[in-house]
Amino acid sequence: MIGNNGINGAIKQGIEKVRGLGDAVAADAAAVFGEAAEAAATAVATASDAAETVAATVAAAAGEGDAENQRIAVLVDSATDVPPEVVEKYGVFIAPLHVNYSDGDFLDRVTIQPEEVYRRFETEIPKTSTPAPADIMSLFDRIAAEGYTHVIAVTISSGLSGTYDLVRSIASGRADLQCAVIDTKSIGIAAGLTAVLVCELVGSGMPFSQVIARAEGTAERSEGFFCVNTLEYLYKGGRIGAATYAIGSKLDIRPTIKCNEEGKYVVCAKSHGRKGSLKKTVSLAKKVAAAALEEGRSVRFAVAHGDAEAEARVIVDDLKAEFPQAIDVIFCQISPALVVHTGPGLVGVGVSVL
User: Fold this and answer.
1) Does 345 lie in the same domain as 278?
2) Residues 49 and 169 in one domain
3) Taking Cα atoms as reference points, which of 254, 245, 213, 228 lies closest to residue 308?
4) Do 87 and 35 share a domain, yes or no?
5) How many domains does the chain have?
6) Which residue of 106, 133, 212, 295 has the fewest C-beta atoms within 10 A of its own C-beta?
7) CA-CA distance, 18 to 337, in Å (whole number)?
C-alpha cells in the first residue's frame, strides 16, 4: 500500500503480522491432526480466513476515513485482462502497454487490436514495453479530476514487467489520492480475476483497506494456466533454448505455463499434441478448484484465448458442467501484449479462490 499520512505503513505491517499469525495457527493445526488430511486442510482454511478477516478489520479500524466518503477508482494495465463488460460497468481505468513494431509504436487495445497483431505475425513479431509514465500520470490526474479519493491499481506480475514498479512509483507521489498497488504475481486473465474481485468489492461499498486485504489474499491463492500452441514464439523471445525448441517441435511437445511464487513464467506440464495440451491445462485448473471447494471456499473460473475462440468456448462449457457451484466462468480475449510472447492459439484458464 502507498501511504500519504504515515499511518498506512503501520497498517500494512499489522496486516502482515496478523496473516503470519494465521499461517502459524494453520501449521500447528496441521501438525496436531497428523494424517487426518481433510481435517488439517479445513483447519488451515479456517485459520487463513480468520487471519484475513482480522487483517481487514484492523486495517479498516486504523483510521483511513469514513467509507461513505471514499470514492475508489480501479486502475489496471492492459495486460491484466478484464472483460469489457466489467470495465464498462465499473468504469475501470486502463493503462495500455505498448506494442512496438519497426514501423511504429501502438497502444495495446487502443491503437492496435488483437486481430491486427495476429495478422502481422507473418511479417514481424513485435516487442512490448510498459505503459508510458506520462500516460499513467495522466490517468491519475483524470481520476483526481473526476472526484475520486482513493485508487486501487491491479497490475501484472513484477516478475514479468516493470509495470508494477512504475505505477507504484507514480502513485507514491500523489498527495491528493490514497493509493494501493497490488502485484498479482500473475498475468492475463489470472491477474484479471483479482481486478474483477476488486471491482465487485468496491461496487458493494466495502472500505478501501478491506478491499485490499481481500484482494491480496485471493491473488495469493489463485492460479492461471496457459496452453501454448507452438514453441516458436517462446524460442524467438529467448524464453527457451534452441535445443528445447528443436526437440519439442519435432516431437510435438506442447508446454503448459504458469507463474510461480516469484511471478515468473515456469513450465508446469508438457503434453503431446494440441489436444493433450488443452486437456492437461484444463485438468490443472480443475485440480486447484476441486481442492479449494473441498476446503469450503468459493471459486470463479476465467477462460481467455488468443485467436482460439472455438476451443476456448468448449472449455467454458466443460467447466460450467463440471463445476455448477462456481460463482462464474468468465470468457474474454487475451491481451495482445501477452500473445506477442507466446503466439496465436494461446488458451488460458484461471481459477480465483475466494
Assistant:
1) yes
2) no
3) 228
4) no
5) 3
6) 133
7) 37
Cell of 263: 511471478
Contact 260/224 with Cβ under 8 angstroms?
A: no
pLDDT tens-place string over residues 255-297: 899 999 999 988 899 999 999 999 999 999 999 999 999 999 9
Q: What single DSSP character describes residue 32?
A: H
One domain for residues 239 and 146: no
* CA 59 to the chain's CA centroid: 23
Same domain for 82 and 45: no
- What residues pair up with 350 in beta bridges, in sequence order? 224, 302
Same domain, 167 and 148: yes
Strand order, beta sheet including 346-353: 265-272, 253-259, 223-227, 346-353, 299-306, 329-333
SS3 87: helix
pLDDT digits (tens, 9 = 90+) for 86-143: 999 999 999 999 999 999 999 999 999 888 998 998 899 899 999 999 999 999 999 9
Q: Helix or strand or coil: residue 2? A: strand
Q: Which domain holds residue 101?
A: 67-220
Determine the Cα–Cα distance for residues 224 and 305; give it in Å rounded to an integer: 13
Q: In whole angstroms, what is the distance from residue 256 CA to residue 284 CA?
A: 9
Based on the fold, state whether residues 190 and 215 are members of the same structural domain. Answer: yes
Give the span between the Cα atoms of 292 and 286, in whole angstroms. Answer: 10
Residues 201 and 75 in one domain: yes
| 109: region left, alpha or beta (phi > 0 left; psi from -120 to 50 alpha) | left
69 DSSP 8-state letter: G
Q: Where are the beta strands (DSSP E) in the chain?
A: 72-77, 93-95, 98-101, 104-107, 127-129, 150-155, 178-183, 223-227, 253-259, 265-272, 299-306, 329-333, 346-353
C-alpha to C-alpha distance for 188 and 335, rounded to whole angstroms:
7
* CB-CB neighbours of 34 under 10 Å: 9
